[in-house]
Amino acid sequence: MHSMADYYSAVQLRADRWSSLREAAGELARAGGERGTQKLKAQIAELMDQLAPIETFWAFPGTTAFESLRRQFEAGHHEELAFTVQRILRALTSGAYRRRHIPLDREGIDNDDHEDEAMQSLEARALSKPYFEVLVVDNLNEHQERWLKSNFQRMRRTEDPFHYEPVVVPSLQDALMGVLFNHNIQAIVVRPGLTLESKLVLPILERYLNRAGGAKALEELDPGNYGPALCRMIARVRPELDAYLITDRSVEDIAGLDLGICRRVFYNQEDFLELHLNIIRGVQARFKTPFFTALVEYSKQPTGVFHAMPISRGKSISRSHWIQDMGAFYGPNIFLAETSATSGGLDSLLEPHGPIKEAQRLASRAFGSKQTYFATNGTSTCNKIVVQALVRPGDIVLVDRDCHKSHHYGMVLAGAQVCYLDSYPLNEYSMYGAVPLKDIKKQLLELKAAGKLDRVRMLLLTNCTFDGIVYNVERVMEECLAIKPDLVFLWDEAWFAFARFGPTYRQRTAMNAANNLREKLRSEAHVKAYEAQQAELKGKGDEAWLSTRLLPPPDARVRIYATQSTHKTLTSLRQGSMIHVHDQDFKGEVEAAFHEAYMTHTSTSPNYQIIASLDVGRRQVELEGFEFVQRQVEAAMSMRRAISTHPLLQKYFKVLTAGDMIPEEHRESGVTSYYDPQQGWTDIWDCWESDEFVLDATRVTLAVGGTGWDGDTFKTQILMDKYGIQINKTSRNTVLFMTNIGTTRSSVAYLIEVLVEIARELDELQDDASMMERRGFERRVANLMDDLPPLPDFSRFHDSFRSEAETPEGDIRSAFFLSYDDRNCDYLELDGSIHEAMRSGDDVVSAQFIIPYPPGFPILVPGQVVSAEILDFMRALDVSEIHGYRADLGLRVFTQDALKKQGKANAARLKLNDARAKL
Fold this sequence. Notes:
Layout: H1 10-31, H2 38-55, H3 63-74, H4 78-94, H5 122-127, E1 131-137, H6 142-154, E2 163-169, H7 172-181, E3 185-190, H8 203-211, H9 226-237, E4 242-247, H10 251-255, E5 262-267, H11 272-287, H12 290-300, H13 315-318, H14 324-330, H15 333-336, H16 355-367, E6 371-375, H17 378-390, E7 396-400, H18 405-414, E8 417-421, E9 425-426, E10 431-432, H19 437-449, E11 456-462, E12 469-471, H20 473-483, E13 488-492, H21 503-506, H22 510-521, H23 524-537, H24 542-547, E14 559-564, H25 566-569, E15 577-583, H26 586-601, H27 608-645, H28 649-652, E16 654-655, H29 658-661, E17 675-676, E18 680-681, H30 685-690, E19 693-695, E20 699-703, H31 711-723, E21 734-738, H32 745-768, H33 771-785, E22 810-811, H34 812-818, E23 825-828, H35 833-839, E24 851-853, H36 868-876, E25 881-883, E26 891-894, H37 896-918
Parallel strand pairs: 1-2, 1-3, 3-4, 4-5, 7-8, 7-11, 11-13, 13-14
Antiparallel strand pairs: 6-15, 8-22, 9-10, 12-19, 14-15, 16-20, 17-18, 20-21, 23-26, 24-25
Helix pairs in contact: 1-2, 1-4, 7-8, 7-9, 12-16, 12-27, 16-27, 17-18, 17-26, 18-34, 19-20, 27-32
């Protein structure tokens, strides 16, 4: 039995302890009255002691049933104990308790009582009423608790769309732990009798309390304000929940308080029916899916189709003699819901007025934005929409160089002057991290010194990166706004849509930071702190600004955009994405341009199934996103622990830690690893609050160079071809395992089994290898783990594409379109003619994007000077895909004549601009 320190989550602990209790109780029952059962009894007593505090937070089996188990055990009724534990575990595992009452004695058990939920058809499961639990916070005795629960039970009506069970806890601390522990909770009823402190003592539960603010946040609370304070604290960790406050205080006392997620206040009454109706209504508001519901209703309507799309209503398939297999594979509903019309209760994505508009409004609420827009052709298009809407030709945009290629192409379309920022390199693993904040501030200050700060429009960063490096979003924006108060931010959160629904992760999302920043700027405390800092910095140079944690001016504009690939990390069909907006100037300055950009890039025939999946995906995360993200993190943490503690796996593999992937100067908390075999789990809340960069725990990067296989070979020939394990990203010596909200513990177990099998086969090969074979293996490992080419920084734009030499921004658009004329270009061989060209003293300038996979971002862009470091890196690449590079011809570059002509045209343009400026 694992020790409690081995568990990252109390949910995993609970599940495993019930399984262990079933095994021990069954063994005790089979032993009968034989001697030698004392060890079993001691084990059962210990398991019950560990489960007792955890079970207080769940409605099933409930504290009453759990205490009945104890009495069975203490009375020596071992067969009854084994039977009851078996039934409880089965109901917990299958989810049967969510659908019906589970009797825990031998009487009244139907034949289908053990039916597993997984064996039901999707249609049958869709017809059952969804189940949730309501947390009631009040310090009650046993009699009062029974009375309270019976009153809730009496309120149930057959027409209710959901059913729920109450869970009663006595204190504010218990309530905080409960909402972070029990993912079934959808509503909280806060009654006036609650106390402050919990009587439970369990380290794993204290970890949950720390995420809600910990003991320090509770010390100064006014006893008369425990209820409102609880609503505010729950809003911090689970803002999607509904809270209802029952108080005996006057209206005047309550009116001015911040009530957090409180939906309604009840005064001095026990109106259970009204409370029940509000609870149902609150959950119904999140359950609502306007567009999906409209599409379902449309599919039921009889129609005559006289518009485009022969596949609409499935007519072209049902009438066919040759493609019936397609209809059989997909089923009828997907075709019944296909149409090119926007009538019949449907809506237009380009000009939404009905259910799509309402679905986007609900998504905005769920993700914490001011406006949210759906996209049906991926986040690549979302990125281009935002850039086109905000960036005008000639605007300077600061971009992290290793961002997704859609941003680079977006810069071309917008005509931006691009200023690339280099991320810190991880040469030993052939990957990049993220852009240090100090480098961003330095670039802004240089542009300010050059008199160009007014032309700087946007900062564009990837949060989180493919490899899982996450920015301190709020801090980055605060310090950048201190230098340029109207700077616009675009955060590419393609891989981070799930983060909104985990308390630890939420604080690092763009929309959460936007709301915090908006509130902070309005506070008197911030105004005073800003004025004091400005007085301190007055007359000091850039070094002081770089070394100070800057505060933004109170009148800074909060202008923040986030693009998210819903389909990558949440439930949506492929290419379903969202744009989230929190821009104080959106209505006055951006809305019309945004609409035009949206019209430019959005299809006039968007896929309705994708839109419906975005609507349903939003419903899911509002009602169970907390549970799914929690399980996702648990799965990744379990994977880390299993690999890090397995002696055979450690010979060939290494899980990269935060210490491996984030330099020490960017980890103020000092946290190096989320799991240490000697010390157990690290509570990551502290480092996620304070560090400049953190590592997304849901991504597990595994160094595989010790196997002698490079990352791409290990991915394709070993994992995928041999074992059917699919992954996305590799580097020269690593592979990335991404957990998601669909990852199960069984999937993790299978991966560990596969890795162990690979390690054993490698051991056998080494045992049977000759001396020369062993040397060959050692050379391959050394080549992958030690002899690695340094990752090249962005060199520079050629002078022909720059406005002046003092600052690094370049005109990527001119370079891109200059290459359209073949007469302006030539090809140079990497191992031949390019050396002669570089030795001549002339700059060799790339004519197009060069994008190797991996790493999957441009190492050269149009107009960039080719450096010796970039050439060395290209020669060392052993990947199968390099977009933009032709091995048969070489590297496409600009001719010297083309560069001279472009230089003259650029100089003339700059001269004309100066003349216009003077006028």
